[in-house]
Design brief:
Blueprint (H helix, E strand, L loop, with lengths): L1 H20 L7 H13 L5 E3 L7 E4 L9 H10 L3 E8 L10 E8 L1 H6 E2 L11 E3 L4 E8 L3 E3 L2 E11 L5 H4 L1 H6 L10 E10 L2 E4 H5 L5
Antiparallel strand pairs: 1-6, 2-4, 3-4, 5-6, 7-9, 8-9, 9-10, 10-11
């Protein structure tokens, strides 16, 4: 009688343990945090687009593309040591006046080469970008109930994240002014994303679109 009672207790604890394990397909904060972190682990953190497609490059001192903030971005990148800057000249585009235009030439420094990631600029042209290093999910704050969309079950997730080992250049005020996304390098930031349910568990939408099934 004692052995039967003992076996019943043991079996009960096993069932409770198995019930607590859950599944990777479950919609919960733990699984969503793991899915977002899996995406972060495959990226280079927060990246900011270089002001030009190739190095070195020149920017007219009275650059007409001020709305792109390219002169301000280049100056900030030079101030934090990712680029060097020297006075230069550019050919005039005015057919009536061929006087060379005052310009600044920017080139990559050794420090800049360390943080430059090919194609990480995030634009259609595939420009390079300067990246901070890995991001870390701090907390999943909320999520929508999974719903069917285009044949997949999806959930929108709101979360906070940080860059634990962000380099000093990414925290510099002048960089955060021209590249607001770098605020995450100095303090926790909020973001949201869409996760998609797969046979292996929840997956970040960008990894899903890229065909990754890790």
């Amino acid at each position: 009688m004692k052995k039967i009672f003992s076996y019943s207790i043991t079996a009960g604890w096993v069932l409770i343990a198995l019930a607590g394990c859950g599944s990777k397909q479950d919609a919960n904060k733990s699984n969503f945090k793991a899915a977002i972190q899996d995406y972060f682990d495959k990226t280079s953190g927060v990246c900011v687009m270089a002001p030009a497609k190739a190095f070195p490059f020149k920017i007219e001192k009275k650059d007409g593309l001020r709305f792109l903030k390219n002169p301000d971005k280049a100056a900030a990148l030079a101030k934090v040591g990712l680029l060097s800057e020297t006075d230069a000249e550019m050919p005039s585009q005015n057919p009536l006046d061929k006087t060379p235009l005052p310009a600044t030439e920017y080139a990559l420094t050794e420090m800049g080469k360390k943080y430059l990631v090919p194609g990480a600029g995030g634009n259609i042209g595939g420009w390079d970008g300067f990246c901070t290093g890995k991001a870390k999910v701090a907390e999943v704050e909320s999520f929508t109930q999974p719903a069917d969309m285009f044949g997949s079950k999806v959930s929108q997730v709101n979360f906070t994240y940080e860059i634990p080992d962000a380099p000093d250049w990414a925290k510099a005020p002048e960089m955060r002014t021209v590249y607001p996304q770098l605020n995450a390098a100095a303090e926790k930031a909020r973001d949201k994303t869409v996760l998609i349910a797969t046979s292996e568990g929840w997956m970040h939408e960008r990894l899903f679109k890229n065909g990754s099934r890790n």
